[in-house]
Amino acid sequence: MRTRLEPWLALLALIRLAPEGAAGQDPNDGPGTSRRLPKRYLVLAAAAGVLAVFVAAEMRQSRLQAELFSLLASKMAFRPTPGASSSMRAAPDGPYDHRLGYSRLPAMLERLHAEGFEIEAQAQWSPELAEWVDAGLFPIYQEKPQAGFTLLDRNGELLHRSPHPQRLYPSFAAIPQSVVESLLFIENRDMLDARFATRNPAIEWDRLSKAGLDLGLRSILPSHPVSGGSTLATQLEKLRHSEAAARKGVHESSAKSPAHPSVLTAKARQTSPQQRIVADYINSIPLAAVAGHGEVIGLGEDSTPGTAPTSTT
Predict the structure, then answer these.
(1) Beta bridge partners of residue 78, listed in sequence order
(2) pLDDT tens digits, residue range 211-256?
(3) In 3-state terms, what secondary structure has residue 79?
(4) Is the peptide bond prior to 165 cis by the omega test (within 30 degrees of 0)?
(5) Residue 224 φ/ψ, nearest 5 degrees
(6) Which of the chain's ends, N or C, has fewer CB atoms near its CB within 10 Å?
(7) Which long-range contacts (CB under 8 A, 24 or more apart) does 190-194 make?
(8) Which residues contact 16 (CB under 8 A, 6 or more apart)?
(9) Residues 172, 275 contacting (CB under 8 angstroms)
(10) CA distances for 280 relative to 274, 285, 287, angstroms
């Protein structure tokens, strides 16, 4: 059976194999005196080698990131409790938050209270989630791709339904393969590659490195173009929650986005992260606005009737 040599065991082995003796010889020693590198240099070289192997493996597999971000996200929760919530925070004023009314919720509650309504129950946040949002980061919760109004009779039969967006792809499998391939050809050709199934989909190290290099060159050559370092996951967070996205569009610089890898990890862990991100992006990207209809959100709403079934959320 093949055993796995942990990095720290490799480091220990290299330390044990390091030559012992004096850290070095005096220059006045006689001819023929052997000279050895100090043991600390060998230890540092061994540690640097092990660290390089670990970083390369982490960039490819993201196992440590998954453990850390999942642990962090697991402490951020909310649950309904009787009465008004003492942890209420203002929602971001991004396109998604404005469209679904989250950013206008305080004003709505104030108007309802003035009309005699009382809050019977409201979501209470965990301290970790409250601290996270107070730090200026997006709250962690699973956004629904479709909202709206549904009216049922006393027997549960549907009387009226007005969803928004009206039509979307209910699952990744329902999206035409040509649509998925076209998107990934432009954005990330390795995203659905089975060889990188555990890689963090929120970070593309090659793209991020190139963006950092371009920024460095731009400080020397102001005319040098800078490529974007954002991924589908970070773009999805921005077009939903970033205030700047409402003003500038989807292609806002990723450096200004408060999306964090742990946010994206927590939101994608219910199913295949890569497929979930692709489906959410295709269902959420704003395309245009049509007179008499309003915003066209997602390719499902823009497609020919019959090709994108309406979700029943």
Answers:
(1) 125
(2) 889 888 888 988 888 887 888 888 888 888 887 755 554 444 443 4
(3) strand
(4) yes
(5) -70, 130
(6) N
(7) 191/232, 191/274, 191/277, 191/278, 192/274, 192/275, 192/278
(8) none
(9) yes
(10) 10, 8, 14
